[in-house]
Structure formats: structure tokens, C-alpha cells
Structure prediction request, 682 residues.
Amino acid sequence: VLTGLGYLLASPEPVLIVAEGGDERIVALNRAARSLFRLDTTARDLLPLQSLLPGIVAAFIAVEADESIDPSRFVRCSARTGDGHEAVMVGAVRGPPGKTPRIAIFVRTAERPQVDEAGEERSRLSALAMASTTDSVVIADARLPDYPIVYVNEAFERLTGYAAREVMGRNCRFLHGADCDQRGIEQVRTALSAGTPCRVTLRNYRKDGTQFWNQLTLSPVNDEGGSLTHFVGVQSDVTNSKQNEAELLRRATHDSLTGLPNHELLEERLESALRDADRSGTLVAVAFVDIDRLKRVNDSLGHAGGDTFIGAVASRLSNAVRSLDTVARYGGDEFVIVFRDLADTAAVEVLIARLRHLLGAPLIVENVELEPSASVGIALYPQDATSVAQLIRVADTAMYAAKATERGSFRFFDRTTMRTESDELAMENALRRALATGELKLHYQPIFNALTGRLAALEGLLRWRHPERGIIAPGDFIPLAEESGLIVPIGEWALREVCRQHRAWAARGVPLVPIAMNVSIVQLRRRDFCSTFKRIVREAGVDPRWIVLEITESIVMDNTELFVEMLSELRATGARISIDDFGTGFSSLGYLKRLSADSLKIDKSFVDDITSDRNAAAICQAIVTLAHSVGLIAVAEGVETPEQAAFLCGIGCDELQGFHFAHPGDAAAMEPFLILKRVPAA
Ligand code: C2E
Ligand code: CA
Ligand code: CA
Prediction:
């Protein structure tokens, strides 16, 4: 399970494995460590251990920040064992390259020091304080009122500018001065009163008044009897990384080309505008702005010119609105504007008129004079829609209506005329058109033999090349196709297309492999599915042996008897049957035996987690064993990393498919695989 680190757990020495980064939780520990920390649990879910061993985690975090130790090889920290001993932990190993780094800590119990009580306390505290030398350390006495500071190290003096003698006996809160309205302070208070560790980042102030970001790790210290005696705080100045964070945040919320808010920030702003409107009883208008003819600009000026044009349009839009409004870039040539605090629709019209006027002035890009124009659709809150997503969608619908009547015009959303054009029905019509006009395409993804690495099959995957929206993935239109029944003609088209491609390859002498196709439950529910299948392959002149029908497990479970019969009839034609997305349904072994199938495809969700989650790994192992026990081949989909591939080979999985080997591509992209029968060398 813990690839590459699993052997460590076999050690007779106590070993803990901590996941680095993020939440630093303990992901595994061996038997020796369990008994050392008095954890008799064999809990499969190791998460609760975090709460059982908070001291270790806190100490670990503190030490990890110590730059004097190369964290890729070595850490040292200490914690209390189950019988109150000091445990010193040394040794750290990073996890396998490319995976979430993990650190294994070997625990060694220190001899219990034979000293008097005061001496013992001192040695206990100094051990903790020593744990870090470059980080600032502060120790407070938890037994005295208001937790006075009893120790600070030199790094503390350097970091804060205060000398040790100035701070002794005071409570740490002077570090945040008057700035006490911070969420972290509340967390510290809670941790102090509960005697639990915590890690927070606070704004602190040096003696000279300058601000810094203090990442504080607070650990409670207990005496032999288990009662709380001290708190140890390890502080580090994370001002720089805080600033980086702010920059990252800005990048995550703003469009890089125009500097305008992106999707996420737009949604956030719109959400808050709606709340304000609820309170004040005013209107919010959402304008969906589609810049006309960007494609023409791109075609004549190139992409750099197109970018300049979009940048100029973006700044015109921002200048045209009031400071309380938000202009966001929504897509390539789409902007969404949120106008808030409006009295009535007349106010919206005034704003839109001004916007179109300012936008339309001649603009010179690379010596070419352009006249930008936009089609604008407007939705109003609360009358047109009540949620952020709906408002944007409705404004988009109105924009399409505007564009359809006249480019460069604007329209308010009109429930009576536009409802039918919106959403599902429009999409369904578009899909119907897509089938007729050849916008549907089949892509293929190779499947390899796990042992030999040779190409075993291809899986056909639908793609919709929408004229405006680009390539749409099947997940976004198949549910609709199923609801509307369009999946039946689409599925027939896909089968004919697979046959045509097979024949085309055969005619050119390209080596062939079986091609798998996904079959929807809606197709299978029709009694004529078998005869349709037979007719299509016969008309195309393809031997059904070249076709694999992938049927999802949940479908098969849906209507047992009917499918047992239907699958055996299909299989009698020579076609192969693969049970797709296996592991998500609840097939019983007995049932699987009665099904006429050739292979099981382990669902991607299990493959995703096999190297990190023991349950997923165990499920994969079980599926492979189960498949083999009833004479089926086990195929794994969604294999993305070499570790996953290695693991799946290791448990005897027969065939592998996934981005690690090859992404789906069009028919031409499959030819190198077919000709070489393996992954071509880079
Ligand atoms: P599926 O049958 O489970 O197909 C596998 C999906 O996983 C494909 O997505 C494929 O592109 C993707 N995939 C493959 N390897 C990897 C990987 O390593 N990582 C990740 N993240 N993804 C990987 P796609 O093409 O978007 O298809 C989605 C689903 O749409 C398919 O799931 C299938 O249920 C359905 N579908 C596709 N084509 C058809 C079709 O012709 N008819 C029917 N009824 N359904 C189809
Ligand atoms: Ca599939
Ligand atoms: Ca799947």
C-alpha cells in the first residue's frame, strides 16, 4: 500500500509514517510503535490516530521547519510515549519520487533520566526547546494564571526584537498588540484551554512596531502524571510565503491576460451582491457580454493581435462601469458584468447604453482600425433567476437571443420567449443537429497487455466538436442524449463509425486489434438491440469478433434475467462483452458466473487510490482475483502513474489503459500504436 515505504513498517523498531504537506497526518505505524504509544487499536482508518498522537505531529511540524536539518533525510523530534517516557525520534525518509512525500520516523525511547524533580522538568523542557534552534521558541507555564513566559531562546529575541528579560513573566499576547481581531487568536485560546496542540498563522508585531506573519506551533507539555505543565510555542516568520500566497491567490482569482476577475471571483462577488440586494431591496443586473467577431480579429491580426484587442476591450469595459460594479472575463471573448445597487430597469439601460457607447469607439491595433461591438444579454435579480449560476445562464440565453436578432444589440431576458431556447432543449436540438451534420467524432484510447506491454485493444470514446463551444466531453452530453433517447441513433452511428474505421485500416494494411465501444442502458433496454447490432456489423462487413461491447456494471445489475439472456445472444455473434466501471455496483459472484462476459474493467476511482488507500488496493486485488476465478480478464482503466501500473501488474491485472500509457486521440493518432503494437518510443 505504501509503495516503497512498506518495508519500513516490517521493522522491529517502532516506525511511524507521516504524510508531508497539508495536514501532516500519520498514515501508518507498525506494531512496535502501537505498543510504544499504547495504541491497542488495529483501526484500519488511521485518521483518528492524529488525535491520539497530537504531540508527535506538533513536534514533527516544529522540527520540520528547522532549516539546519536537511529534511529530505533527517529529522529529530520528541514526544511522550504511552507510559510517559520521552521518545526521541530520528531518521526520516521521503516517499517514492513523484508521489506525495512521506516521512518515516523511527522511534527510539530515551532512557528515563534519573534526576530530581526540578532537574527533570528542566531537562524535559530543554529537550523540547532544543528541538529547534533556528526557530524562535517560547515556553509558558500553564500552571500559573495568565500563562507567563518562562523561557525564550535567542531566535525569539532576534525575531521579535525583545530581549528575554523584557518578556519574562508576561503573557505572549503583547506580540499581537492591538491587532487582536484575528481568527487564529481564537484558535490559540481554544487550544490553550483544552490543552491541545495547534498551528496557526498570526499577524505579530516586533518591538519596533513592524508587522510579520508568525506561524505558531503550540504544543502542550504534560508531566509524568499526565497533567498539563507548560506550553511550548515554536514560531517562524512566514511573511515571505504569506506574500507569495497573496500573489497566488490573486492569480487564482484573476484572468492572466486582462487582469480582470475570473469565474471564481465573479461568482463570489455576485453572491455578495445578491445578499446586499436582499437586504436593501435593490436590483442586481448581470450582463453577459459577447464580443463580436473576435475570430475575425484573430484571423487577420494573429493571436498576439487578438490578445491586445481583448486587453483593450477589457479596459474599456472596466472604465465604463461604476466602481461598485464587477467586470469579469468569463471565456475567450465573453465577459460578465455585475451591476449592483440599482433602483429599476431604467438605471440598467442607462448603464448599458454608456457601456456600448464607450466600447464602440474606434480602436487601433497594429495599425488596423477596429470598431469593437458586443452582443449583450441582461438578467435581473430577483425577477429572472435567484441563484448565481442561474443568473449567468439566463443572461447567456438573452445574449444568444440578442446576437440572433442583430449582432451588437442587447436584450433583457424574457421568460415568455426565451425559456424554450434555454438549457436542455437548446442543447438537445444542438445535439440532434450535431448527429446530422457530422459534429460527432470517435476518438480512441489504446489498451495494453500488462505483462507484455503489447497493444491489446482500442476503446472508442465519443467527442462532440461543437462549432462554438469547442470539444465537449461525453460526460457533458451523454446524460442528455440518454434522457432524450438520442443515444440510440448516436450509439448506432458510433457502431457504424467503428466498423468503417476498422475497414479503412484493414484496407490500408494497418494491423488490427479489437475495438471496444460503450453501450448505454437506454440502448440495451430496447428489445431490438441485438438485431440492430447484428444488422450494422453485417452491413459494414465486419466480423463481430473485432468488437467489444462495454456495459457498465450498474446497468447489468438493473434487470438481471433480461440481461443474462441478451448478453449471451450478443456473445453468440462472436462479439466480446466487458463489464465496465466494475466495483461500483454490487454484483455477486454467482451472478457474474451466469453472465456471458469476457472481461471486467476495474473502475478508475479504485485505480486512482491504489497507491494511497489500502481499501482501494484491497478492492483492486479482490476484483482481479474474482475475475480470474470466474474466467474473466481483469482490465484497469485510468492508470495515470508508473506506481499504479506497477501495482496493477503486481496483483495480476491483465490489461491496462490510461494516460500513463496513452491519451485518447483520433484515428490517425492510433496508427503508430497499431503498427508498432506498443507505445512508440518518444
Ligand atoms: P468510461 O467508459 O469509463 O471511459 C473512460 C474515460 O476515462 C474516458 O473519458 C477516458 O478519456 C478517461 N480516461 C482514460 N484514461 C484516463 C486516465 O488515465 N486519467 C483520467 N483522468 N481519465 C482517463 P471520456 O472519453 O470523457 O468518456 C467518459 C464516459 O462517457 C465513458 O466512461 C463512457 O461511460 C461514456 N462514453 C464515451 N463514449 C461513449 C459512447 O460512444 N457511448 C456511450 N453510451 N457512452 C460513451
Ligand atoms: Ca468504457
Ligand atoms: Ca469508468
About this structure: The mean pLDDT is 80. The CA atoms of residues 115 and 123 lie 9 Å apart.
